[in-house]
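User: For my dataset I need records formatted as: sequence, then structure tokens, nothing else. Please produce one.
Assistant:
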Amino acid sequence: MSLKWKKVWISDETFESAEVFDVNNDGILDIVSGGWWYEGPDFKKKHKVYTARQYDEYYDDFSTIPIDVNGDGNIDIITGGWWGNTLRWIENTGDPKKEWIEHIIDTTGNIETTRAWDIDKDGNLEIVPNTPNAGDVKVYKLIRDKNGKGTGKFEKHIIYTFKNGENQGHGLGCGDIVGNGRMDIVLSKGWLEAPQDTFKGEWIWHPGFELGMASIPILVEDINGDGKCEIIYGNGHGYGLYWLEYFEQNGKREWKRHEIDPHNAQYHDMKLVDIDGDGKKELVLKIQRGGRNPVTDFLPDGDRIYSFKEVLAQEFVLEPCTLPPDTVVLKPGRQLTLPGIAA
């Protein structure tokens, strides 16, 4: 089914990410992007969040993760950026006339973007920043009180430290690769196998592929119906969109790469969701412009959203639901938001 989209102008801000949640607890969804939030349901009234630091055309605000960090009933956001070298949470004051309060969680080094997954399967999200130049992988767990409410503090867990001067690289994903129900972590040069005890056990590093400047997230999904998860990734700062098929050969785990779309560039963010209600998931991707690539930054395809429908177990076909460059006015380069759609 071809989808038709209606363009709705919201504002002229050009922050890196956006998210949809109920900011003021009135039961109506709002939009939060960078330094502002836009009050639903028409998003015409905007309120200041905080002053996001600007570096040239970029803002040091590369994610918008909604969590009630301090347990006061107001949803806060977690962000971080490349230049500030810090992971931060921005406290929702609950007063639309007051700016939100910025708190530093940790000094991490350059953050490409941040994602949240339930790493230890306890029903709560943990925070995982992609820090390409760092020599380790960190997970931040919100400390909660006996009632399960956030306390405003985080525990830092360094789950793996690379050897021989290697680093994390550009790209981050999470999912069950082994098939034991645990949440493994995928990076651009391999993947980390989760132990039974998430934060006390030893994570095992499996090199085995080279994804380059991979997307965030790298998706971990069983797309060919064999009961084992495959990997879907795009080139975040160059050409190409691919999936990796897992198989065993001579007792070793191997990966075979398949092309989905080698012709478009800067697939920095993606989601696998059912956007047309037919019960099958589509691969929805954000192509960004201004991705620090001197070739692809000037392509006419910059700042678009594409959808690929999985028509067969191993095939994806581009659906005619491409949006023109001015359709998405709030243009998140590092966090694509699809409110009201279940993954």
